[in-house]
Recover the amino acids of this structure.
């Protein structure tokens, strides 16, 4: 840049742009959707193109909680505790119909949607969702991260 | 060994303890009296001709309001045995009344019976006498009732946290 030129932006937008490309996810994988999650993460679909390629296996280091698979009533307090351990800012993705609504498991064992326990930002339906759906959900999450008010 | 030969050998050894046998759909099955089940299982495991060294599954069936079983014992506890050495199988069943719903444990014969019997207790509420640690296996401790019993209300939910939906 030459003398006298300058670059203007709102600080919120700059931080949002940075945050949406540095998603550190915590994969809370409990069931068969995990296979599709792995397919999405590997080289063919390559979730690293969206800056989400580095899963963290401690909730304290993660920004986005990926809830992947059926959540039973027995597991529900564990999921809530994982969510509570994450630092702000944090987001939650419900991956697959079981996490969205309970799916076809309407029985004594299964939580009828994780949004009855923790807040959810993006729902990705499917049983399991194809990697294209997952990437679509991830991009919607990126839009939400970038558009929201940034706290720092 | 052929399935009917296994049943004949069991009948020869256990006599009146074998209440009935059948081979419906090719599944050879012996119904054994509750008092004789440990003897029957021990014989199946240790006899050189049988050598049932693997307890494939231990489960139960609730026959509440089942046509033809209205007046009979409510539960069947089912043992699926397999012999790796001889490549043959057999099923043993024990009929269990609702009020005296307990069966002698098989944990002394196959260690896997420990968890399988805990699962049957959890799901059906059938006790196993002599079990070292008869706690729920699948459901949480706070859960009330036994969900695979036919009279467990299909709509009843017992969440630990969150709404009761």
């Amino acid at each position: 840049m030459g003398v006298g030129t300058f670059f203007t932006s709102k600080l919120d937008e700059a931080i949002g742009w940075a945050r949406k490309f540095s998603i550190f996810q915590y994969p809370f994988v409990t069931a068969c959707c995990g296979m599709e999650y792995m397919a999405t993460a590997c080289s063919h679909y390559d979730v690293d193109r969206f800056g989400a390629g580095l899963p963290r296996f401690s909730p304290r280091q993660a920004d986005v909680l990926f809830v992947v698979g059926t959540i039973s009533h027995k597991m529900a307090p564990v999921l809530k505790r994982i969510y509570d351990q994450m630092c702000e800012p944090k987001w939650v993705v419900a991956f697959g119909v079981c996490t969205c609504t309970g799916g076809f498991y309407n029985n004594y064992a299964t939580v009828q949607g994780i949004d009855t326990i923790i807040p959810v930002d993006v729902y990705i339906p499917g049983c399991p969702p194809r990697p294209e759906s997952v990437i679509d959900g991830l991009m919607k999450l990126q839009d939400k991260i970038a558009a929201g008010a940034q706290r720092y | 060994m052929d399935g009917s030969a296994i049943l004949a050998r069991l009948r020869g050894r256990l006599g009146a303890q074998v209440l009935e046998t059948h081979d419906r759909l090719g599944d050879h099955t012996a119904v054994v009296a509750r008092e004789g089940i440990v003897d029957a299982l021990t014989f199946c495991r240790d006899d050189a001709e049988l050598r049932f060294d693997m307890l494939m599954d231990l489960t139960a069936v609730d026959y509440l309001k089942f046509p033809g079983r209205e007046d009979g014992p409510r539960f069947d506890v089912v043992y699926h045995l397999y012999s790796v050495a001889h490549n043959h199988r057999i099923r043993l069943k024990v009929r269990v009344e609702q009020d005296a719903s307990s069966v002698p444990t098989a944990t002394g014969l196959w260690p896997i019976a420990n968890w399988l019997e805990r699962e049957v207790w959890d799901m059906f509420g059938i006790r196993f006498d002599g079990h070292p640690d008869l706690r729920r296996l699948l459901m949480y401790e706070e859960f009330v009732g036994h969900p695979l019993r036919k009279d467990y209300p299909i709509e009843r939910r017992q969440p630990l946290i969150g709404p009761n939906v």
